[in-house]
From TrEMBL:
Belongs to the beta-class carbonic anhydrase family. Reversible hydration of carbon dioxide. Catalyzes the reversible hydration of carbon dioxide to form bicarbonate. This is Carbonic anhydrase. Its cofactor is Zn(2+). GO terms for biological process: carbon utilization. Keywords: Lyase, Metal-binding, Zinc.
Amino acid sequence: MQPLIDNARTFGQRPEEFARLAEGQSPDVLFITCSDSRVVPALITGARPGELFELRTAGNIVPPYALDRPTAEAATVEYAVEVLGVTDIVVCGHSHCGAIGALVRGDDLDAVPAVRDWLAHAADEPASADATDPACAEAVQHHVLAQLLRLRSYPCVEQRLASGRLRLRGWYYEVHTGAVHEHRAGTDAFEAL
């Protein structure tokens, strides 16, 4: 923790670099990814402060849209689309994902009931050709596509897609190599960026 504290102390000593951020934000991208500490959106994309609007959830899960039961995730998506006017939403899954791995393996999550109940929001039970594969690549990629489909059910997303003012993108990040792959509709495969 101490190195993080030391950096935080010196971080604010360059106010001229951050003054413009007080004027507001206008990111073009909502980046939805896992809470996993190995996935750092700004590092992966090279984004500077103000360039990405981030939503991080365990397993990069987008819960079902329900107006009568608002969620922080739905509020974040709605704000990004309606207020900030993002033009792209990226759902980025990653290799070695503990959440998706637990679903694939059928782990007993009774000791962590909040995690168990959150993972129940996964759109489908991710399938995997090899449940012993720690990367869970196939399952994670399937899960990313399921979350993109789930996003389409959000009214603000549906409207912006219909008008051509929004694009959805599915990414898969390999934590062990740093490689990023994007789903291509034409081939229905995740290909290197």
